[in-house]
Amino acid sequence: MSQELAEMTALPFKVELQGKEYTLSNMTLGLYAELQQWAEKQLYKKLHDRLKALPADSEDKDIREIRQQLKDKIVNISQGEIRFEIATIMNSAEGAAYQLFLMLKKNHPEIKSPEDCKHLVTFERFNQLQKLVEGDVDEGDKKSPPAQS
Fold first, then answer.
1. For 23, phi and psi rounded to 5 degrees?
2. How far is Cα 44 from Cα 64, in angstroms, rounded to an integer?
3. Is residue 143 helix, strand or coil?
4. Which DSSP symbol is given to 144?
5. Contact, 28 vs 12, CB < 8 A?
6. DSSP at 23
7. Which of 1, 87, 147, 148 is most exposed, with minimal Cβ within 10 Å?
């Protein structure tokens, strides 16, 4: 089956990564929503950790201002107003690993977490994986580059 037909019908397709064939689900709206929720949680955690690192009772005007900005950003996550930061997380290497996890988990029960996919997301394959996720793949791109030793 061609990649185009798989995309139009949301049928899974096969890809070879590190010498092993995997069956990937297409990135449906449901999977994309899961990815976005994951990215929002990652951003929330990052902002919350920064907020906790600053002294809450500081008299320093700059620290109080930074704390308020962080609080505002945390509120804005739930209101969907910081799409750029969320998109940055989604397009990171960690985001690519999570996307790959979402696309693999249905057809590969042995893959139980995004950690199980991180070894598949190497610098050399990052662009190839992004193409897979975006559905912009030539038939020749479906084979992974040889593993580096």
1. -105, 120
2. 19
3. strand
4. P
5. no
6. E
7. 148
